[in-house]
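Record minuted for completeness.

…
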Amino acid sequence: MIHPPFALARRFVAGEALPDAIEVARRLNGRGLLATLDILGENIADRTGVRAARDAYVRLLDEIALSGVDSNISIKLTMLGLDVSREFCEENLRAVLAAARERMNFVRIDMEGSRYTAATLELFGDMRGEFADHVGPVIQSYLYRSRPDVEELVRLRARVRLVKGAYKEPESVAFPHREDVNRSFDELAERLLAGGRYPAIATHDDARIAHAVEAAERLGVPPTGYELQMLYGIRPRFQEELARRGHRVRVYVPYGAEWFPYFYRRLRERKENVLFVLKNLLRG
């Protein structure tokens, strides 16, 4: 397969190297936006590669601290050895979380495909007691299981990031229709705002954002009590507008040499992603 030029993905990916990501985070901070930096890649199946990924996450935390940018990090457990063994993944995850705690930073554990959901939440639960202020999971509203998962995470006072979900999943585990995914998203957002701990509402959907903001106001949750989160390169002017209105807006910034699989998969997984990306190439 012939890869398209990186220029095509550059609007949505900070670059291939760590300095590129730090510079993007600095520019976002200058526009009143927070950042989450994420090293592209997943499903590393050899121990040497996993250890290299673990060390790269720690270097990222070091560079954030040294540069002074306002950013946390996002990680994938399949980069930390979940496909090797649960015990090996836990060892590497603990090393990253210890580094984050030492640097007073926060680690978001990304949610991958549904076959990893249970293990991801179990590992988060194992780490929560030791690193409660420095780690939080992601919940995907299109999974049927997400309602009880959110109830348990609210009980645990976990910091949750809510997304719709981008992986192609079978109807046996996920809502197949957009209206059901949206309804689930709104219900889970409201539950997290009502009883959760500093939830992150991650969507580019105007109706979902409006619902979350209205629910926060109705529930008496101040703008400092939650975050709105969006992807780098998607509606940047709208991101800045939300920040000017007083919202805390965090931008997810991916970077790394594995940019093509990330970019291609975002387009391949759901046909609406193609139209969404093309539309956003033409709008602010």
User: Anything to note?
Assistant: The mean pLDDT is 91. Residues 34 and 107 are 14 Å apart (CA to CA). Strands lie at 34-39, 71-75, 107-109, 135-140, 161-163, 200-202, 227-231, 249-255.
